[in-house]
Amino acid sequence: MTELTAKGLSFGYAKTPLFSDIDFQLHSGQIHCILGPNGVGKSTLLNCLAGVYRPTSGAVMLDDQPLAKVTPAARARKIAYVPQMSSERTPVSFSLRDYVLLGRAPYLGLLAAPSQRDIAQADKLLQRFGLAARAENSYSAVSGGQQQLASIVRALLQEPALIIFDEPTSALDVANQVRVLQLIRQLAHDGYGIVLTTHDPNQALLLNDQVSTLAQDGQWHSGAAANILTSENLSQVYQLPLQVIELPNNHQKTCIVDQAAFRSLQGD
Ligand SMILES: Nc1ncnc2c1ncn2[C@@H]1O[C@H](COP(=O)(O)OP(=O)(O)OP(=O)(O)O)[C@@H](O)[C@H]1O
């Protein structure tokens, strides 16, 4: 069992704090979704949880060790971080296969090359994500969605205990979004701990595990999906009339924009 915890976490790029006094918990087998409006600090928080940024105050612990004291290589064997996709195309000369094999770096010596087993595992995962035909293509020459799937393959090849995903479905069509959500469910079932940010409350409703919301006023609410994904809390977080309703046929919950309120927002 691996555990990532944060207590009293605060961070600010300048003097004004972006968020303050956040408590967070993730353990093996758990899925933790973080929701909140654009620019509220979700990616920044993930960077603190991944050990990329040092919090202004508070501490992040990986099991019983302060994360800041864990070496980058040891950290990479425990935590994989899949950052947000950038819309800019950075030219990369690697093939897609070589790109995903970077996930093996924490296990290789300085000048060592990936083993045949690593390459076979990479090809198996590329196949699983429908990328096998692109394995030899340059990473820069595949679509944004394919790059996003490749970054997930790279994280899996890292064989971590915990995976931090920043908007893992942002560039994906609806079928691939669902595939990634299913994969996240499967990974949690296999024992990985997963934290992800998403802009879609319905993804958090589907995953139905732990949820946190960060609002513009800095309010942080954390708990089981059913307690956090309420009409009241989501409307407050997004400053928009949202309703969480239960579908009559299968009791599945879904989040909708209240239509009457939507019309009144338009001034009809
Ligand atoms: N390196 C940086 N230096 C200064 N300010 C930054 C930096 N990175 C982000 N910010 C600012 O911090 C705030 C939070 O950014 P962050 O990317 O964490 O938000 P977010 O909730 O992930 O947003 P989104 O949902 O739009 O991705 C924003 O106002 C952003 O402009």
From TrEMBL:
Residues 4-241 form the ABC transporter domain. Keywords: ATP-binding, Nucleotide-binding, Transport. PROSITE patterns: ABC_TRANSPORTER_1 (PS00211), ABC_TRANSPORTER_2 (PS50893). SMART domains: AAA. The keyword Transcription does not apply. CDD domains: ABC_Iron-Siderophores_B12_Hemin. Belongs to the ABC transporter superfamily. This is ABC transporter ATP-binding protein.
